[in-house]
Structure formats: C-alpha cells, structure tokens
Amino acid sequence: MGACCSTINSRDAAAEASLPDVRATMNAAFGKDTVQTGFTDGHTCIMDSDKNTASEAGASLLYGELLPMGVCKLMNQYHLAAGSARSLLDLGMGTGKLVMQVFLLYPNLTRVVGVELSRSRYAIAEAAVLELARIQGWEVEARDPGRFVRIRTLAGCGESSPRTLEVRHGNMWKASGVALADIIVMHTDLTETCVTELRRLISKAKVGVRFVTYQDLTPYWRKSVPPFEQIAENIDESDTFLTSWSSTKGYHLFCWEKIASTPAGFRVEGDYDTKEAIS
Fold first, then answer.
1. With 80 as the cut, is the pLDDT of residue 232 above it?
2. CATH of the domain at 212
3. CA 16, CA 179: separation in Å to the nearest integer?
4. Start and end of every DOT1 domain (predicted)?
5. For 182-198, b where at least 16 C-beta lie within 10 A, e where not — what string?
6. Tens-digit pLDDT profile for residues 68-121
7. Which of helix, strand or coil describes residue 183?
8. Is the dihedral of CA 126, 127, 128, 134 positive or negative?
9. What is the total count of domains within the chain?
10. What strands, in cross-sheet order, belong to the sheet with 183-186?
C-alpha cells in the first residue's frame, strides 16, 4: 500500500474513532441529540415562507438526514474520499449537521461550506455553527445574520493551520466555489425544473471532484456521454448509508467522480428526455 493510501486509511480510522467525541460536541452545539430518525427538526421547522421560496425556485423541501455512521461511510476512501480532500461543498445542507460532522472529523479539510434554501433550516445551522465557535474558542471570521456565517479555527489549538466552516442561506444552483470543491454533496431531491441547472453545475465542477446525489443522474445524459462515472464500490445497490428514514437497512445514494471536462460548445440544455429522466 502506498503512502498516500496509508494516510487516507489512517484519516478514515481516526475519523471513526473520534465519532463519539464529535457527536458530543455536535449535541452541545445544537443543544440536543443530533441523531434523529423519522420526523426531524428539519421537517418541523418549515414555515409557509419556506414553502413559498421553494415553489418560486422550483425546488423540493423533501427532507432526510444521513446519520453519523452513514456520513462516516460516505466520506471514506471508497466513496467520497474526504481523507484526501481539502474542500467540501454541501448543496442543500438542511440544518447543517453533515458539514459540521465532516469538519470536525477530518482536520485535513481546510474549507467546508454548506448552502440551504430554507430560511428556517438555515437558521438552525447558523445558530449551531455560532455555538460551535463559542464552545471551541474559535473565531467568527465573518457574519451577516440570516445570510451567512463563517467561523475559523485557531492555529496552535490542535490545528496546524486555520480552517473555515461556513454556512450560507441561498439557492444551491447559484452557489459560488463549485469549481474549487474536491467534494460536492447534493443529498437533495432533484425536481424536473432543475435539470439544466444540474448539468450546468457539473460542467463547472473540476475533473476529479467526487460527488453524491439522492437520485441516479445517468438518465439526464440520455443523448450524450456523461462526464462522470459511478464510483466502483457504489455500483451495487447493496451499498447503502444509514439515514433518518432508513436507520437500520440504510439507503442507496449515488456516488460519482467527474472524469472528463465539459466539451467546448456543449449545451447544458437538451440531450435528455425530461419525463423519462425524472420518472
């Protein structure tokens, strides 16, 4: 085994070993047990204003969370390989549990960002991130209440160099930083109206980025070769991840790696049958 693989293995092992402590820290930041199944805070917080915003954006408020062990598996070297990454972008982060967990588990990640359309879900994430900074003695580097907050670790406090965790309120399709991300999480329900935006986002992502989706993306490229392939360990549907709606058996999410750049002149519109792609 090469030195690189050995380092990734050790980071995955360290992440799993630190999970109990990370869970305790997250429980303190959120002010409650963060492991929820069935109907979660991400469901109960939704207001009519969130529904109106989602309707205007053509987005879905369908919600569910990856449980802590599901996150650990998703981030291991056989899936999204967080141990070899430096940046992660979570589009549709919900209440922000995944971004916080990954930031705490993998100190090699120097920049973790989450984006959420629902103002109510975002508010939970913002409050938790601010509390995390207070608990850990970290710096609130920048903040615009209700819009974004970015916190920064302090070098010398168990950190070799400062790292940042940021949560933003906004439309995931308008998020900045897509081209810089090593990992993109899109654990969200993709609606018929967002197919063009999805294809545009993937065209902007860099070759080598690993990303996860709730749905199979290959039908969206019916008439062209997709610039990504499913990660080998994830092809079998038995490769499942523990979630809030399937806490025992787990649910099969789709893990991909972008393998080719977008050809010149490629149109993000077209090249698929929308009805078949969504059904």
1. yes
2. 3.40.50.150
3. 29
4. 48-133
5. bbbbbbbebbeebbbbb
6. 999 999 999 999 999 999 999 999 999 999 999 999 999 999 999 999 999 999
7. strand
8. positive
9. 1
10. 139-144, 148-152, 164-169, 111-116, 87-91, 183-186, 210-213, 254-258, 228-230
